[in-house]
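Hi P.,

Sorry for the delay on this. The queue was packed all week, but I finally got your sequence through. Input first:
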Amino acid sequence: MITSLEAIVLGIIEGVTEFLPISSTGHLIISSNLLGIAPTDFLKTFEISIQLGAIFSVIFLYRKKLTSDLEIWKKIIVGFIPTGIIGLIFYKFIKQFLGNTEIVIWSLALGGLALIIFELLHKEKNNSLENLEKITYKKSIAIGFFQSIAIIPGVSRSAATILGGLLLGLHRKTIVEFSFLLAIPTMAAATGFDLLKNAPSFSSNQFFVLLIGFVTSFIVAIFSIKFLLKFIEKNNFIGFGIYRLLIALVFWILII
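Then the structure:
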């Protein structure tokens, strides 16, 4: 059983890592392992569900754009389609690997290496798309396919979508913001589908623990989003790549 304190700790970790290209799922899985929390079905649902708290922070921060621009919603939904289909097909296969720390560690390391190599080779073009309104439906669905790579635990949805967007010629701030928005239907669907299947078996105390993790991740994620938007004004993602390699090494020593 997850305690209230553990729910707060995991909520903080989720809020910090959800939108950074370092894999929130990977950090939650390994943190749960280090905290000695048994890998139950409830833990897996908890790790999926508290991500919805972080997603609500996006809705809160971008509420004006989301309520005034229907075209943005259309592109978000189009971008979600590949992940929605692939996630639905491979749901059972994916969930059985959520507690596999070796897969997470390898994904963290390889993803970190990919970030470093990409940033060393990538040169952002002067004519890159600089606002969300100019993202085409074709690019939206292509970014959705990149996002679907993150069904592998530890890959990072944020990293996959951001690198995909940069490859497609989007401005760094534009793809980071689109990645935020694309998380709304993605995580809402993942959480809703999982809760629909598993919620009837949860106790009132377990729902309370879920609520604690949800609220914590919501609050912390607001600051994490603001940090990332400020960070990318003058920095690339090499630092996150190095971090992924180092944390993968630390986790390997501590766990494996």
